[in-house]
Write a structure and sequence with these properties.
5 helices; mainly alpha; about 10% strand; elongated
């Protein structure tokens, strides 16, 4: 069975609407055409954003998640770095020189 990574936008849009591509992805995972791969951070982000922006969709989201064949990433750590504009210009020039 194939595994497909699902980000928060797919999960939120799928919970918020009964139609559309995102809901189709969730439905296909629900009937077992593939397994969705998510992280705990994505799950928390979805719940937080739905609670804040579309609270009526939160119960639908929770039901969908309980019925879908999911795999969870073990642990995801995000690296936060601060990039200065001068660095971006230097990198852009280096990339363009190598073309």
């Amino acid at each position: 069975m194939k595994t497909i990574f699902a980000d928060s936008s797919i999960l939120i849009a799928g919970a918020a609407s009964k139609t559309g591509e995102s809901r189709a992805v969730l439905t296909m995972a629900e009937i077992g055409l593939f397994k969705l791969l998510i992280s705990e951070q994505i799950l928390e982000e979805c719940q937080r954003n739905l609670h804040k922006k579309i609270p009526l969709a939160l119960p639908i989201f929770n039901e969908l998640i309980s019925q879908i064949n999911l795999s969870y990433l073990e642990q995801v750590e995000y690296l936060r770095i601060k990039i200065h504009e001068s660095d971006l210009k230097e990198w852009w020039e280096a990339i363009n020189q190598n073309k």
